[in-house]
Amino acid sequence: MDTAPQSSLLSRRTKWLLAGAALASLVVTLVLRSISPPEIRAKLDAIKKAGYPITTQELAVAYPLPSDDQNSAIIYQKAFDALVSPPPNVSADWPVLSTNDPGRTAPLAPEVEAGISQYVADNQAALQLLHQGSLLPAGYYPTGWKNGFTNISLIPFVKIRQSAQLLALDAMVRAEQGNSAAAATAIVDLLALGRSLKSTPTLVAQMIRVAVLRIAAFSMERSLNRTRFTDAQLQTLALAFREADSTNELKKAFITQRCVGIWFFQTSDRKALHGWFSGRLSPGRLSPSHLLPVELQGLEDNLREQWMIARLRRSKNFILYLDLMQQLIDAAGQSVPKRMAVNDAIGQRIGGTDLDWVISNYKYTFRSDGEALAAMRAAQIALAIERYRLARQNQLPNTLADLVPSQLNAVGIDPFDDQPLRYKKLTNGCVIYSIGGDGIDNGGLEKTSTIPNNQPYDVTFTVEH
Question: Which DSSP letter does residue 446 get?
Answer without folding.
Answer: B
